[in-house]
Amino acid sequence: MKKTFRYPAEGRWFKGNTHIHTLASDGGMSVRDIATLYAQAEYDFLFCTDHWKASNVQLFEETFPLLWIDGIELDGKDSRGEAYHIVCLGREQGDMVDRMDLTEAVDRMRDAGAILILAHPEWTGNSLDPELADRLDGVEIYNHVCRWLNGKWSGRLHWNAQLKIGRPTLGFAVDDAHLRPEHPGWNGGWVQVLAPVCERTTLLEAIRRGHFYSSCGPVIRQIREHQGRIELETSPVRFVRLVGTDALGQRQGSFDGIERTEWAFEIPAQWDYAYLELEDAMGRCAWTQTLYV
Ligand SMILES: [Zn+2]
Ligand SMILES: [Zn+2]
Description:
Layout: E1 12-20, H1 31-40, E2 45-48, E3 67-77, E4 83-89, H2 102-112, E5 115-118, H3 121-124, E6 138-143, H4 144-150, H5 156-164, E7 170-174, E8 190-195, H6 200-208, E9 212-215, E10 220-226, E11 229-237, E12 239-243, E13 249-253, E14 260-266, E15 275-279, E16 285-287
Parallel strand pairs: 1-2, 2-3, 5-6, 6-7
Antiparallel strand pairs: 1-8, 3-4, 4-5, 8-9, 9-16, 10-11, 11-14, 12-13, 12-15, 15-16
The structure holds zinc ion (2 copies).
Residues 73, 85, 119-120 line the site of one zinc ion (ZN).
């Protein structure tokens, strides 16, 4: 297995969230107030992903302290009756505002080039290889509102199940922010995208290629491959784990409370895939994408 290291050597990290609800569906705040709020937490971009309401940020009549990018969240059932929520990134969905058959909607968006993400699979109760999985680009591995709702925030089981059967699935940490009194959480899960500039087409392409990591806290300052080793500079974290299929794993760090900022791993040649999971002193994690493509 000879593959290419995923992350580019050049670029800047841009912080963003790929799952946000506004007043256009069941969110509690306007796009202006959400932008102001998130800009204070050093976000560079947000995707507007209301339920069955394709956004059109070109029609927003104000300027914002961060970049809004279009999206939509669909939900429905497949032919077997399994329920899904699917977040679509990009303006490729046109002006879709009416509910339609989920499979038809997903095919339409996929044909048009949107990035499709299986949302909160643990919360929805998705099977590990759902019927529509081969149409999807990614899965939410952390969903902040689902953590609040009933603790079913993880999509790691679903992510690893897809990786195990060879699908190049991306892992996203998201807020799924609603910003209503009963769903107050935000800035709990986000992505950091490595790109030359913070611009819509550039960010979408970088996300599609997996030039990002997902985080609930830890920061990756640099990730590179040097003479066959993966070298990592991070914010202070306690553990970094190299994660592979099933029980495969390597780990560095210790339970003695010491934090480190520099790490290096060599990926065993026989592993089918590997990504890194970082954990800080508060137990908050971050995840790279699979390191080789
Ligand atoms: Zn949802
Ligand atoms: Zn949502």
